[in-house]
Structures are given as structure tokens and as C-alpha cells.
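HOLO CASE FILE
Compound: protoporphyrin IX containing FE
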Amino acid sequence: MATNKDSQKFVQNFLKGTEEFGSRVWKSIFRHSWPDSARTRSLATMSNVFLHLHPTTIRRASLKVTYTFCLGGLSFFFFLVLTVSGVLLMFYYVPSVTQAYQNIKDLETVVFAGQFLRNMHRWSAHAMVITVFLHMCRVFYTRAYRPPREFNWIVGVLLLVVTFLLSFSGYLLPWDQLAFWAVTVGTNIAKVTPFLGPEAQFLLIGGYEIGQNALIRFYTLHVIALPLIAAVLMAVHFWRVRKDGFSGGL
Ligand code: HEM
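Model generated. C-alpha cells follow.
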């Protein structure tokens, strides 16, 4: 029969076990103890991807908001807003020529906060194009494209192109007159590319004129392919900012 002492020992062992388990789980996620001293606080900062985007040492002057105007960070913020609002829009939108236009009308008139959701997506897209462009101007103005950051400048150029393509591919989705004719003009521009023009246009719209094939192609590019490419490029971009050293930190 279990005595009082046995049950006390059992409880003690159980508590010790959960404590060890808890500390193992904590260590597997954070790899340092609770940040309660100067040393553990700096360890916490250095081992956290969000806190440690910039190098450990930078000039005090470069901490000024006016050095970057946080334009790269703002571009990333708008990308996140677009991702979340875009996923919510996908609950209501069907990429079909018979349904798309009505889906958008329903979003504006029937769905709770649908118009807010659509506008949030639209305005964030405009804002992202503007902030990415201004971020590029800032990088140029502070000469941050020079070695050792020339590779990150190229990654940035690719991000600029992907941002434009995301914007353009989203344009067709409402399937209204504006969308239809804007994409007709856009893909006709692709058609006059030297040598590969007609093939490029055919590949883009899946036929000779804008129709269901074009809609499904633009939709897939807009919701899967381009956001994935942008996310991978952004990961490389941020990693390079960290590895090349922030230009303001020299
Ligand atoms: C989706 C687009 C982009 C995002 C989210 C992004 C994000 C960022 C962030 C967060 C930084 C850290 C410093 C800062 O905030 O200014 C940065 C730095 C940098 N970006 Fe971008 N960026 C984008 C597009 C571009 C473009 C279009 C270019 C140039 C063509 C570019 C070139 C650079 C370079 C060279 C740096 C290092 C700057 C330095 O060390 O001062 N980026 N980017």
C-alpha cells in the first residue's frame, strides 16, 4: 500500500519532470534562458530573426528614421497586409468568367465588411508599389547599391519586377471592362517583344484572346506563383541585408 511519503515523492518527481520538460521545450524554441540580464538580453536579440535583421553594431546617425524612412519595412508590411486580405478574398472569389464579376459585386454589397476587405487589398497594393519604388530611390540616393551590396540590389530589382507583376495579374481578376481592356493592352505589349512576342502573349493568356484561360492563368500567378517567388526573394533580401551589413552601419 502506498504511504504518504510515497505519494509525496511521486508528486515531487512529477513536478521535476514537467519542469525539465518545460525547460527543454523553451530551449528548443529560444536557445537561451529567460532574458533577465544584460548578457541573456543580448543573446535573445541576436538569436531572434525579427530583432536581428540589422547588424549588431551600427552608427548612431544611421538609426535616424530619415536614413531609410522605413520604406523597406513598409513594403514588407504592405506585403503582409496583402497576403492576409488576399487569403480572405479567396473565400469569396471564384476565378470563372461567369462568376468573377458577380463575386466582386457581392463583396461590395452583400458580404459583411466585404467592401472594406476589397479596398484594403487594393489600397495596400497601390501603397506597396509606391513604397517599393521609393525604397529603391532611397537605396540609390544613399549609394547602398555599391559593393558589397550589388547582389542585393539585383535581388531588389527582381522584387520590383515581381511587385509590378503581382499588381498587373491582380488587375484582371474583377473581370470588368477596365480589367479586360487593361490586360488586353498589357498582353498586346508583350506581343511586340522581339522574336518571342506572339509566343509570350500566347503563353500568358492561354490562347489568342482574353478569356477563361487567361483568367485562370492570371489567378494562379497572382495567388500562388508570384507571392511564393516574392516571399523567397524577400527572405534572401533580408538575409543579405544582415550579411552584407546595413550601409548605415559602416
Ligand atoms: C518587395 C520589395 C522590397 C522589400 C520588402 C524590401 C525590404 C528591405 C528592407 C526591410 C531593407 C532594410 C533597410 C530599409 O528598410 O531600407 C532593405 C534594404 C535594401 N534593399 Fe530592399 N526591399 C524591397 C525592394 C528593393 C528594391 C526594388 C531594391 C533596389 C532595386 C532594393 C535594394 C535594397 C538594398 C541594396 C538594401 C540594402 C540597403 C542598405 O544597406 O542601406 N530593395 N530592403
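CASE NOTES: The two ends are 73 Å apart (CA to CA). Residues 106 and 135 are 36 Å apart (CA to CA).
CLOSED: yes
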